[in-house]
Amino acid sequence: MQIYSYSSAIRYLESLIPGKGRKERVYTLDRIWRLLELIGNPQNSFKSIHVGGTSGKGSTAYMAAAILEEAGYRVGLHISPHLEKINERMQFNGKSIPDKHFSVLVQWIKPYVERVGRESDFEKPSYFEVLVALSFEYFKRKKADIAVVEVGLGGALDATNVIKPEVAIITNVDLDHTEILGNTIEKIAQDKVGIIKERIEVITAARQKSVLEIIKKRCKEKNARLTIIKKHPNVPPLRPLGEHQKVNAACAIEAIKRIKEKRLKIKEERVKKALINLTIPGRLELVRSLILNHKSLILILDGAHNPAKMKSLVAALKKLYVKKKFTFVFAAKKGKDAEAMLRLLVPIAEKFIFTGFGATTDFGKNQSMSPEELVKILKKINPKISAEIKKTSKSAIISLILNPLSSIHNVCVTGSLYLVGEVRTLICQKNKV
Q1: Whether residue 323 sits in one domain with residue 259
Q2: Which of 70, 183, 341, 355 has the fewest CB within 10 Å, making it most exposed?
Q3: Which residue intervals define the domain Mur ligase C-terminal in the entry (predicted)?
Q4: Is 150:41 a contact under the CB 8 Å cutoff?
C-alpha cells in the first residue's frame, strides 16, 4: 500500500487492526522492542512520566502535560484512544501532530513495520504499537524535554511499557477489561504494577488494601519509592473538570515534584494557572454550541466507560446540576459492564437514547453493543424509564439536540469515548469550529 496522503496513512494503519478471520494477536513486547530498535530507540531521547490505572489516567496525563508546558518545558503527550482524530494520540506542547507531519511519519516508519513482519520470530506490529512508536519518534524530532505517556491497557505488556520513566503513576485499580486483565482487582493490579521499574518514583491514589499491598510489594522488589495520595488540600479549584478530578490533579502535581532533575521545580502559581481553566475533551465537557436551538440546553459530553468512571460522572452531575434529570445518549463497547453503568445513571435519568458507534477501535471495527441489548438491560433495572433506539449517533443527536421542536433541555452523552468522539465531531462540523 502506497502512502501518499493523510487518508492513505490512516488506511495503512487501520490495515494493522485484526479483522474477521484473522487470528488473535499475542500480547508481547517483542514486536514493539524490535520496531523501536530498528528506528533508533527514540524513547530514550526524552524523560518521561508513565500514567496507568483503571480510571483517570487520561485526565492525569493531560494535567501533568499542562503543568509542565505552563512551566516552559517542551512537552510530548501520548494518549489513547483518540476522540475525533488519530492525531490526538501524539501531541506536542498542547497541539496534535499536523496531518502533513503525521503522513510523513507513517510513510517513514512503514518499511520498518513491514520488516518486523517479515522476520521469522515476529508478526507485523499492531496498530497501537505503531502509533506508540510514532509518538516517540515525533517527540524525539520535536526535541521534547519530557513526555507524558498514558498506558493503553493494563501495564506489563502494554506497548508503552518500553520507557524507563522518572515517575510512574497508578491512579487507581478497578474492574475493567476483565476479559484480558483478569476478573479480580488483584489480578488487574498485578498487571498494572508492571510499569514500575527499577529505582523510579511511584505515585498512586489506589485505596483498596489488597491493591496497595501489591503495589508496595512491586516497589520493594524494584527499589522504587512509593507515594500514596490520600488527601489533596493544595489542588486549585477545577471548575471546568469537576471536583472529582482533584485526586487526578494531586497525582499529576506530586509526580512532577518527584522528577529527579532539580530544575523541574515548578512554582505554585504555574500549577494553578495550568489547571484552573484546563478543559479535557470528552471529560465532563460542557458544549456551548451556536447550532443548538434551546437557549437553556445543557449538553455534557463525558466518555465514562466503566462503573468507577460512571460513579464519578454521576456525582459530578448531582453536584453541578442539583435536582436536575438528564436525557442520556448512551452506547457501550462490547464487553463493558453496561448494566452496572446504567444502574448508576437511572436515579438521575429522565430518558435514555440508546445508540451505537461506528468508530474504528484499537481492536477492530463496530465494537459497540446493540441498542436493543441495552434496552433489555435497562428494562430489567427499571421498566418505567423511557427508552428510545437510534441506530447511529448522528441520528440520535439530530433528533434530540438539533431538532428545533425538541423539548429536551438536559442531555448527557456517555458510555463510551468512541461515542463521545463521534458526537463531538458532528457538533464541531455543524458549528464550523
Answers
A1: no
A2: 183
A3: 282-415
A4: no
